[in-house]
Design a protein that fits this description.
Layout (H helix, E strand, L loop, with lengths): L1 H11 L10 H7 L5 E4 L5 H14 L3 E4 L7 E4 L3 H4 L2 E3 L4 E3 L2 E8 L3 H17 L1 H8 L6 E2 L3
Parallel strand pairs: 1-2, 1-3
Antiparallel strand pairs: 3-6, 4-6, 5-6, 5-7
Helix pairs in contact: 3-6
């Protein structure tokens, strides 16, 4: 998959972004046509990451709470959630606690895309730039 992304990157001259995913994949991640993202109200870096994901998917962002229906959640990787959700690797650590993108189990292609998305954001410096822009350097970092 990463080789495919690299080839598409060169072909489209958009090397700092992931490819525009196929409609079937967008539908798997955001079946309502909007990316319903569960976000903590005080986590501005995760909100930036959610906006960037919506841009990549070319759908509007619909921020929601953890109690509402969501397509992805920007959350802590808690064991209680692991029975129902798959997690990406952490993209952010705030106050010593990792943040991941979580999605309902049973979406393997969506999970692969989100894992690549997280790695892309970390490697391009997107998350680090968001931390700096939001003035969170004392509390937040990008995991290795």
């Amino acid at each position: 998959m990463k080789r495919l992304l690299a080839g598409l990157c060169v072909a489209t001259a958009a090397c700092s972004t992931l490819y525009a995913p196929p409609a079937a994949l967008v539908n798997e991640i955001a079946p309502t046509g909007h990316l319903r993202a569960a976000l903590a109200s005080n986590d501005t870096v995760s909100r930036d990451v959610a906006r960037q994901l919506a841009r990549h998917l070319q759908v509007p962002l619909a921020a929601t709470t953890f109690g509402a229906s969501f397509d992805v959640a920007f959350a802590l990787p808690e064991a209680a959630r692991a029975a129902q959700l798959d997690f990406t690797e952490p993209y952010l650590v705030v106050d010593g606690r990792p943040r991941v993108i979580a999605l309902p189990r049973g979406r393997p292609q969506a999970g692969e895309y989100l894992r690549d998305f997280v790695e892309e954001l970390k490697s391009t410096g997107f998350v680090a730039q968001s931390i700096e822009r939001r003035g969170m350097q004392a509390r937040a970092s990008v995991p290795k």
